[in-house]
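It is worth pausing here to work through a concrete case rather than discussing structure prediction in the abstract. The textbook approach is simple: state the sequence, then state the predicted structure, then interpret. We follow exactly that order.
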Amino acid sequence: MKSEKSVSLKNYTTIRIGGKSSNIYFPESIDDLLSLRKIIALKKTIILGKGSNIAFKDSGYDDNILSLKYFTKPIKLINKNSIMTMGSTSCARFSKHCNKNQIPGFEFIHGIPGSIGGALAMNAGAFGDEIWNHVMSVDCILNNGQIKTFERDDIRTSYRYVENGDIKIFLNVSFKYENSNDKAINDINLDIRGGSMAAFVGHSGAGKSTIINLLPRFYDPQEGSIEIDNQNICNVSLRSLRENLSMVSQDVILFDDSIKNNIAYAKESASNEDIINAC
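Step two, the predicted structure:
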């Protein structure tokens, strides 16, 4: 496996911006990735796809980077009903392979830009079909460096929405308000499973409201990270994040308008039926 130090990162991103790396590894196989599991488990390790839309600072990046630029991208026919491929395989290449080998049902994937992995992450679709309609299972490398297989029934999806049930995870999160000398929360670690109910109990000033306010990114933590479905919430758009959150604050605000418009405020396109169901 190839590795390099102090190389220009602009050569490994789509937008070609960035200074030099500290350590960059180029795994070419699953075995290479497994040998790097301790590095993958480090929270500041970044994994770059073949063309990652990420901009590094001119000063570079001081922690570990994995680039999948040279990762093998096999497409293998398991049987007449099953195909195996890697997440880094381009959708166009996968669709062409299926067409060449007279495997029907995957023509729509040619209309999806990017890679199979990216399409799975957002449940991309084209021509009336969606990629998760054709998935049997996926093998994922988790943040702890372990490989886990998710069966199709383990994944809940709708168009452009994917959820595996690992909802909210706080990893070594610390936060201090701007005008305070003390941290409101310090080195918090939480793991709240999908479909479960959790309650925060503590005295006034213990940090309960701070934890809740970090979820919709009213603030960002100075240390640590918060993940929803294995995605750092700082790496998704605010709109996408907040569209999937419902929040009732202890400070209730009503606008000087009708009850109907107050209820519909978060969704301008809400129909009367939507508003009634929300009640």
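Step three, interpretation. The longest helix spans residues 91-100. The two ends are 58 Å apart (CA to CA).
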